[in-house]
Amino acid sequence: MSSHAPSPPEDYDVAVVALSARALARSARRAGLRALSIDLFADADTREHAAKAVKARPSKRGIGFDRKDLLATLRRHAREGLPVALGAGFEHAPRLMAAIGRRNPLRGATPETVALLKDPFAFSDMLAALGVPHPAVARSCEIDGALDGWLSKRAGASGGAHIRRARSGAVASGRYLQRRVDGRPLSALFLANGRDARILGFSEQWADPTPRAPFRYGGAAGSIALPAGLADGIAAALHRIVETTALAGLASADLIVSAGGDAFHLLEINPRPGATLDVFDRGESPSLLALHLAACDGRLPDAFERPASAQAAAVVYARRAVSVTTLQRPVWTADWPACEEIIPAGAPVCTILAAGATPFAARALLAERRAALLESLRAVSTSRPSPNPMVPA
After folding, report:
1. C-alpha radius of gyration, the chain, whole number
2. How would you classify the pairing of strands 310-317 and 248-257?
3. Which residues form the ATP-grasp domain (predicted)?
4. Listed residue (156, 42, 24, 23) closest to 389, CA to CA
5. Global confidence as pTM
């Protein structure tokens, strides 16, 4: 045998693949699983939690993975048949999901389910048929008069940075219009087994707006208590959606709850583990990745023990190009960048975390920490630009 022959892939329990796989790798470690992590960063936090962390190449066409590179990375590092759990980064790429699944079984939503849930018009038609309240969607040619009260969104996107207030004129290719609904933005974290859904908790969400991205994702805090009737209505809606789509695994539903707290509109389903892992996957609560894998096998928990305290998590974005080389990392951060990295203005710097007796207390502490970190970043900001795979096109 040639000395240059590639060595066989190491043996892992699961591969976790996402734009940033740190939270999934941490959840795998909490479950006692050896995880192969593949994401766009392979930062120190991810390397700490994963059995192996591999950095993949970003797509040149916007947020996401370079298809050829990702498939080659999986062939190189993951044995054939190793289960793969996908996080953010595949909502717009069901064909890439299918390509991964031909060699490695996907543990979570199928490509067909993702394609349905992320097609805004098919999704809206399904919700209407199921009697689930939701905002209207349209193409610009279907709207008579001004577009006041409408939002422009990119199909298959996530994170909020793609959302704009609609303006007169044609909507760009790949975008659609959604009627804006006023109220309180919440997220329902739930498990699905292809037949039923089990809500694990609710969290409140907020934006970190900029002039060009007024709905950019800011953070989340939970667990939030809702009136029983409202929570039951949301649970019933999710049950009907799962029953119709055969959705499996950990997912979340983005909602707008009315000011009176007695009604909701469902904005979208995120058919994969997401940002609220940092809110719920901790303390005495079970590993959410373990629950995700069990749900994919058809098993839903009878109950879910939520963390005793509230938790808030937020993304801190660079206001100017910055390097953290000279900064001492705060202990309440995650996803801390490499020292040599220059982070461009508008790109995520890191995640910050805070716990409290209530979500309000956790958010108050989070705000203090965010202000302190932004001041530290301001002091070391630079004018040097650098491409970043998390900045949307």
Report:
1. 21
2. unpaired
3. 94-297
4. 42
5. 0.92
142-173: pLDDT as tens digits: 666 677 889 988 887 777 778 888 877 667 77
Domain chopping of the chain, boundaries: 14-107, 115-296, 310-379
Q: Which two tokens stand for residue 254?
A: 């983005």
Please name the residue ranges forming H helices in the chain. Answer: 22-30, 44-49, 67-77, 94-101, 111-117, 120-130, 228-245, 277-280, 288-296, 359-379
Contact criterion met (CB below 8 Å) for 314 and 205: no
* Cα–Cα distance for residue pair 95/89, rounded to 1 Å: 13
Q: CATH second-level architecture of 14-107? A: 3-Layer(aba) Sandwich (3.40)
Contacts with 144 (C-beta within 8 Å, 6 or more apart), sequence order: none
3-state secondary structure of 323: coil
Name the token pair of 120: 């805004």
d(C-alpha 35, C-alpha 94), whole Å: 23
Q: 264 has which bridge partners?
A: 257
Q: Cβ of 295: how many Cβ atoms within 10 Å? A: 26
* Torsion-angle region of 349 (φ positive above 0: left; ψ -120 to 50: alpha; else: beta): alpha
**Which tokens sit at 128?**
């209407």
How many whole angstroms separate alpha carbon 154 and alpha carbon 340?
33
CATH of domain 115-296: 3.30.470.20
Q: Tell me the DSSP string of 1-39.
A: --TTSPPPPPP-SEEEESSS-HHHHHHHHHTT--EEEEE
The per-residue pLDDT for range 223-276, each reduced to its tens digit, is 999 999 999 999 999 999 999 999 999 999 999 999 999 999 999 999 999 999
